[in-house]
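Subject: sequence -> structure tokens, single chain

Hey, anyone have a minute? Need the predicted structure for the following. Not urgent.
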Amino acid sequence: WGTTHATFRLDRTNLWVQSLLSALPFLLHVVNLVRRLSARVYKCLFYTFSIVSSRFTIAISDSLLSGQS
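Reply:
Had a minute. Here:
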């Protein structure tokens, strides 16, 4: 019983490995797409954040200057 159980587990592992190998190109494609998209999103977020932070800094400095005068 132990040997049949072991071979059964081995067969299942082989099936799993085969399906994983067949899905590997698709997974790599998906990973590349996600990386490209995330790079674009990061650029947009960074751009927006820099604009917002610069305007925020200008507003704070303006309020500080107007408060001092």
